[in-house]
Amino acid sequence: MAEATKMNNEAPQTGPAGAAVPAEKARIGAPSSAPAAIAGFSEEGESLSELNTGSIQHGLKRHSHGNAPVVPEASRGERLKSYRLEDFAPLTGREEDWRFTPLNRLRGLHADPLTGTGPSVRVSGASNIEVETVGRSDSRIGSAATPEDRISAAAWAAAEGATVVTIPANTVADAEVTVTVLGADKAPAAQHLILEAGAFSTAVVVLDHSGSATLAQNVEIVVGDGAQLTVVSVQEWDDDAVHVSSQQAKIGRDARFKHVVVSLGGDLVRLTPSSVFTAPGAEVEMYGLYFADAGQHLEQRLLVDHAVPNCKSRVTYKGALQGQGAHTVWVGDVLIRKEAEGTDTYEVNRNLLLTDGTRSDSVPNLEIETGLIEGAGHASATGRFDDEHLFYLMARGIPEQDARRLVVRGFLTEVIQQIRVPALEERLALALENELAAGNL
Predict the structure, then answer these.
(1) Which is it for strands 161-167 and 130-135: parallel, antiparallel or unpaired?
(2) Are 268 and 105 in contact (CB under 8 A)?
(3) 434 CB neighbour count, 10 Å cutoff
């Protein structure tokens, strides 16, 4: 692999001008002996703040997750973005973007200095790409992303540099590129990665997270004009890991970008992927697969920003949950700006609840500022096994346990097949089988 290392020692700049978890997992489909409950939540949703007693503002009740009056939220495209940590107020858990996230399980990422030793980074695979380690003054840092929340801004402020992976223009990577992120320190730490696909290049990049860490991470992705880039982010952390990652992509003219998220490990994993169109003719596909076990919190909040005309996006996220206290969150924001005529977009999220005691929050949001579009839609569904599916399979001689596994496997495999890296697909299929076996399915 062609590799150049560039270090810069200049002074950093500020940027451009819980409840106990059961030891055993419930058998999938088994009846519960007590009402399902997740700490911090009621049947109506998240616990209400004692500061909020239903006070009245102009005849309207205040929000159940804050002490502010009912005021329509600004456009998704108008939310605060800043490189300065001080521009973001300390988190309370009542903010719209954080109301589902258990802040007490972030191990200080939202409040403490990020002074820990970040996970190691090793890049392998293709031989015709470029890998660099750069200092804070490198102009590519900040070229594709601006922090949109407090933890992302904290990671920006604390990172001493970045690992940059570049696929040169007009280059087809001769193998997939694997960026191995291996954690070994639980102290809160920051990390910055940059993936840049030059014009008319083609590549598949896998971000492979494992080990133990408390990590605030920024990933910038630049997809040049006419480029075809697939980025796969795999979270197979140890059970005690905490990972909060902002993964922002800037998409050029006529480019093709595919982003795939697979979250299986970790105690708390929160990803905020975003795709921003910067020129016409581009297409984006965003896929996600997550499997939450007892006590695990897996959260995905994504944004597709149609800021220019004649672009297309498709979003498909699927999740499964098993065991007491398993909790997943999916929030999908699609913004079609006034200038984005000819937009074609659709997003869907589906969740399969395998046992009692689980909770899945699914919130699709579609904001349209122009009526001159090709199409726009969204869908969300959360439920248990379809008894008719199980009956159909069992009536044909398939044992109940095998029938259940077939249903779950078929439900989730669609996302794995989008990776197009045979060795990784095989590994994740095996990991999925292990998840099913751990739940006694």
Answers:
(1) antiparallel
(2) yes
(3) 11
Residue 65, C-beta contacts closer than 8 angstroms, at least 6 positions apart? 45, 46, 48, 49, 52, 94, 96, 99
DSSP summary character for residue 163? E
Concatenated DSSP letters of 313-350: EEEEEEEEE-STT-EEEEEEEEEE-TT-TT-EEEEEEE
Selection from 287, 217, 292, 225 nearest residue 252 by Cα: 225
Token pair for 402:
């095998």
Please provide the DSSP assignment of 384-395 as one string.
---HHHHHHHHT
Cβ neighbours, 10 Å, residue 298:
28
Alpha carbon separation from 72 to 46, 62, 109, 137, 396 (Å, rounded): 20, 12, 29, 39, 53
H-run or E-run covering 222: strand 202-223
Closest CA to 38 of 336, 412, 327: 327
Phi, psi angles (nearest 5°) of residue 263: -115, 115
Give this prediction's pTM: 0.84
Residues 6+ apart with CB under 8 A from 324: 21, 22, 26, 36, 294, 295, 355, 356, 357, 358
Full DSSP string of 385-435: --HHHHHHHHTTT--HHHHHHHHHHHHHHHHHTTS--HHHHHHHHHHHHHH
Q: What is the CA radius of gyration of the chain?
A: 22
Local confidence pLDDT in tens for the 441 residues of the chain: 444 433 333 344 444 444 444 443 333 333 344 434 445 544 333 543 333 333 333 333 344 444 444 344 557 888 899 999 999 999 999 999 999 999 999 999 999 999 999 999 999 999 999 999 999 999 999 999 999 999 999 999 999 999 999 999 999 999 999 999 999 999 999 999 999 999 999 999 999 999 999 999 999 999 999 999 999 999 999 999 999 999 999 999 999 999 999 999 999 999 999 999 999 999 999 999 999 999 999 999 999 999 999 999 999 999 999 999 999 999 999 999 999 999 999 999 999 999 999 999 999 999 999 999 999 999 999 998 777 878 888 898 999 888 888 989 989 999 999 999 999 999 999 999 999 888 766
Q: Two tokens at 141?
A: 């840092």
What tokens appear for 89 in the block?
């107020």
User: Do 366 and 332 form a contact (C-beta atoms < 8 A)?
Assistant: no
